[in-house]
């Protein structure tokens, strides 16, 4: 398996929801950048912050290792990004200010 670093600025297209695993909290969601969709996974404190403040249509900068895997049902490949760094950027009408 190859691991590459991805840097993506895109629109959140699915509502991030916090989930629990034995290793701690995590969330999964999709980000659209131009014509590409990325499956994004955030863990720990990053997952908690993203789930608390983000919703679809808002812009997000994400950076982290990227892996590609073959889909199970069809032969499409899926790109996964594991968030190491992120930043809220821009915004949409009604966006939320994140406290620092």
Topology diagram in text:
Blueprint: E1 4-12, E2 19-21, E3 24-33, E4 36-43, H1 44-53, E5 59-70, E6 77-82, E7 85-89
Short characterization:
By secondary structure, the chain is mainly beta.
* CATH fold-level label: OB fold (Dihydrolipoamide Acetyltransferase, E2P)
Shape: globular
Total strands: the figure is 7
Binned strand content: over 45%
Question: What is the number of domains?
Answer: 1
Strand order of the largest sheet: 1-3-4-6-5
Write the element-wise H/E pattern from the N-terminal end onward. EEEEHEEE
CATH 2nd-level architecture:
Beta Barrel
Q: What Rg, in angstroms, do the CA atoms define?
A: 14 Å
Description:
The chain has 100 residues and is mainly β. It has one domain: Nucleic acid-binding proteins (OB fold (Dihydrolipoamide Acetyltransferase, E2P), Beta Barrel). It is 10% helix and 53% strand. It contains 1 helix and 7 strands, in the order E-E-E-E-H-E-E-E. A 5-stranded mixed beta barrel has the order 1-3-4-6-5. A hairpin with a 2-residue loop joins strand 3 and strand 4. It is globular. It starts with a strand and ends in an 11-residue tail after the last strand.
What are the main properties of this structure?
100 residues; mainly beta; OB fold (Dihydrolipoamide Acetyltransferase, E2P); 5-stranded mixed barrel; 1 helix; 7 strands; globular
């Amino acid at each position: 398996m190859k691991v590459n670093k991805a840097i993506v600025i895109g629109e959140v297209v699915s509502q991030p929801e916090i989930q629990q695993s034995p290793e701690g909290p995590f969330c999964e969601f999709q980000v659209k950048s131009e014509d590409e969709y990325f499956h994004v996974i955030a863990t720990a404190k990053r997952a908690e912050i993203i789930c608390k403040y983000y919703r679809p249509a808002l812009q997000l900068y994400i950076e982290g290792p990227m892996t590609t895997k073959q889909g199970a049902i069809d032969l499409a490949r899926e790109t996964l990004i594991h968030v190491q760094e992120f930043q809220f950027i821009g915004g949409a009408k009604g966006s939320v200010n994140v406290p620092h």
